[in-house]
Every structure is written in C-alpha cells, then in structure tokens.
Amino acid sequence: MEKTVVEFFAGIGLMRLGLEQTGWQVKYANDISSDKETLYTSNFGRDHFVRGDIHELATARIPTATLATASFPCTDLSLAGGRAGLQGKESSAFWGFIRILSEFKEQDRIPPLVLLENVVGFLTSHQGADLHLALQALNRLGYAVDAIILDAAWFVPQSRQRLFIIGVQREYREKAPSSLPLASPVRPKALVDFMLHHPDISWCITPLPSPPSRTISLAEVLEELPDEHSDWWSKERADYLLNQMSDRHRSQAEEMRQAQSWSYGTVFRRMRQGKSMAELRTDGIAGCLRTPKGGSARQILVRLGYGRYDVRLLTGRECARLMGTPDSFLLEVPLNQALFAFGDAVCVPVVTWLSENYLIPLYREISVG
Fold this sequence. Notes:
Layout: E1 4-8, H1 14-20, E2 25-31, H2 34-44, E3 49-51, E4 67-70, H3 94-106, E5 113-119, H4 129-140, E6 143-151, E7 161-169, H5 189-196, H6 235-243, H7 247-257, E8 263-272, E9 275-281, E10 300-305, E11 308-313, H8 316-322, H9 335-343, H10 348-368
Parallel strand pairs: 1-2, 1-4, 2-3, 4-5
Antiparallel strand pairs: 5-7, 6-7, 8-9, 8-10, 10-11
C-alpha cells in the first residue's frame, strides 16, 4: 500500500504541501475555481489537476489512492456565513465527495483513509446536526471516525482554528481503541461533549501528543517595505482608521507609538451596534486570514514606534508566510486573488503535524494489519 492521495477542494495546494513533506504523493487534485487553479498549477504543474464541479466528476477517471482529502467550502458552516449548513449552496458540495466515495466503494477501491477539514463552526452548525449527518455518512461507507481541532497559532503567528475529521475503514482497525477521550488541547470540551452526546457514531479515537509551541511572531513574517512604498496608507487614511478604534485600543496604539522601538499589530473592521469599529490586536499573532469578499475581511497591519503610526494591508507574501508556505511558493496573481486563496486554505505546518502524528502512524498500522 503506497502513500497516495486524491484531494478534493484542493484550493491552491496547501494541503498537498503539508502532506508531501511527510512522504505522501498526490495522484489527483480537483477544485472548481479557475483562480485557485492558476496558483495550484503554477506551483505543482497540471498533471494531476482537474478543474470542475465535484458533483459532475466521473469517478471512473479518478485514480485509486490510500487517502482522500476534502477541504470542502465553509461558507454555510461558518459563524460569519448564513449558517445554511450542509444543505447550503456551497457547503452541500460535501455530498459530492460522499457520492465519489460511494462509487469508489461500489468499484471495490474505496480509500482506506479520509481526511476532512473545515471551520470549527461545523461543530455547532444546526446544533451539531450537520456534523452528525456527515459522520453518519462516513460510517455508512465503512469508516470509523475521529475528530480534532488544531490551531495554526501553535505553528505560525495566525489565529486559525480548524476542525479535522479522520476516517479509517473499519476492516483495517477492528481492534482499534474506541473509548471517548478526555478534553485536551486538540480535543476541547465542546468537541468531547459532541462525541459523548453521539454514541451512535462509530468512533475510533487515537491518542495524540500535545501540540507544539510557536517560535515565531508576527514581526518575523513581515516584508520590509520602504517608507515610500505605495502600500503604506496616507496620513488621512491612517488617521481615519485610528479614529475608528475604541478609547482602549486607541490608547494602546498611542502608547506603542511613543515607544523607542517598533511594534506591530493587526486590525479588522467590525460592525458593533451598527457602527464600523477598528479592533486592534497586539499579541504578536495575526487574526484569521479571510476571503476578502468585503472590505471588513481585509486584515490591516499597523506599525508603531518612534512617534510614528504607519498603516497598510498585509501583502500576499505575508499571508503566504502566515499559512506556513515557503517563499519559493509562486504568487504571480493580483493581490485580491492571493488574499482570497489564502483565506480559503489550510495552514501547511498544521497538516504536516497532523500527518506526522496521526496519518503516518495510522498508515503504517493498516499497511501491516
């Protein structure tokens, strides 16, 4: 059994980057977005990429693999979205993935392992009913399942929690542990409570080590743009942002400005009681990168010190670094296209850690089982 992967909702290939670092080989990749296809194929070539709607893919043309991954759309599951759930226009693409797995099963070549990734809002969508439906669907296909939550902030200076669901065909783990876990960093209380309240699900829980401690801060991923660079905002625009801050955040910014050293923070604009507010974060971690469908989703960088207050948007390269990609990753697309791509992606070192500590040991176990 080889470490081969077919990936769906492949995006720009960050799931692939994380898996390849631990020896997995991608044989097929699919996504519906032409913009994401541009970035994916410029970095990985066109050999394995098929653009198209997952509901219309011909399963017979998809190669057999050991692992199938699906980072399906979060729009209808996110707290920031409409919460239409798995019946929503975009997140219902999950059922296209289930169709493909079902047809794989009919063809007697279902992948032994599956990996799903989505926002933590999946856990609470329709009071947990959507996640329950998804897990039941995997169970019906012969998968015993596990779930964990990983935060990119353990690896890179970005706050980004994501829910990962791992499925393994029961025939490979008939004697696997199924006792439900105690709360831990990777399985917080809300997730464990969900597991306890759904004993009908065929669980297959694997103990995991504690996640690592991050070693880099926001300042270390920033590009050194000269003061005259066009990305820096005008004084009027920067002052307008400052005036949108609460008294507490504005006071904090002023204190940082008077220091005899540079410090950095990030800002999101949010609606509070019908008013646009600028919320400042100064703990050395960026907020979660988002898809910039609206102006409020674009993360703003502030540089303060030596009596100065400078403002600009994060660059595409900075977003790439916040997702753990190497600087060799090609970004030859417009800024908004890059921001959308990274806001929709998975954090590379998170995937690598998950593979090293879960998928690879599981692969070895089922390979000799």
